[in-house]
Backbone:
């Protein structure tokens, strides 16, 4: 993936923030960020019962040496880390999987919406055909947000507690693009 992630964004509420790619030097900042995320949101993000984010996961969220995974960080003007997101390319590099987490004290300001829109635009620029998010059926806020952003709900055939939300993107077509197999779900972010 290319590194054209830096951008200044403004939400519908007028809140301004900056997005950039995570680096290994951000590990401590990301660790501190997760102290401001509810246990329920940690469970929703990782689809597991873990209470804290492990060192290995923090390393994975700040690495830059995997060309199929890109980690985004969103910062307030005062440098507070607001949100952490990941976009991972599927085996065919035409489908992406996204995961997003926001600090508890910055919810309901449009940051999640704007971050997800930014990631969708990034994926479109890099010719992804679709983007997917795996969500717990109990994560009503995320499902509602993604449905509002034209993601379609698809049942996960392997786990009835999870749904896949998929959005078809307007990527630039290539003559050698093969059609996607909609029955395949990567689960690579968990």
Residues:
């Amino acid at each position: 993936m290319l590194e054209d992630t830096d951008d200044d964004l403004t939400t519908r509420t007028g809140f301004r923030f900056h997005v950039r790619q995570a680096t290994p030097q951000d590990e401590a900042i990301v660790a501190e960020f997760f102290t401001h995320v509810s246990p329920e949101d940690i469970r929703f993000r990782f689809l597991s019962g873990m209470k804290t984010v492990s060192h290995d996961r923090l390393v994975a969220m700040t690495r830059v040496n995997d060309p199929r995974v890109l980690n985004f960080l969103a910062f307030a003007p005062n440098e507070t880390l607001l949100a952490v997101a990941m976009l991972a390319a599927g085996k065919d590099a035409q489908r992406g999987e996204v995961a997003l987490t926001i600090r508890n004290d910055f919810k309901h300001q449009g940051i999640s919406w704007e971050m997800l829109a930014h990631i969708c635009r990034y994926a479109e620029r890099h010719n992804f055909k679709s983007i997917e998010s795996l969500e717990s059926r109990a994560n009503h806020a995320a499902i509602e947000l993604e449905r509002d952003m034209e993601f379609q709900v698809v049942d996960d055939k392997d786990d009835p507690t999870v749904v896949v939300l998929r959005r078809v993107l307007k990527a630039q077509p290539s003559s050698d693009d093969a059609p996607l197999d909609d029955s395949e779900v990567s689960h690579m972010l968990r």
Observations:
- Strands lie at 7-10, 16-21, 69-75, 81-89, 95-102, 130-136, 152-155, 162-168.
- The CA atoms of residues 19 and 74 lie 4 Å apart.
- The chain has one domain: 7-168.
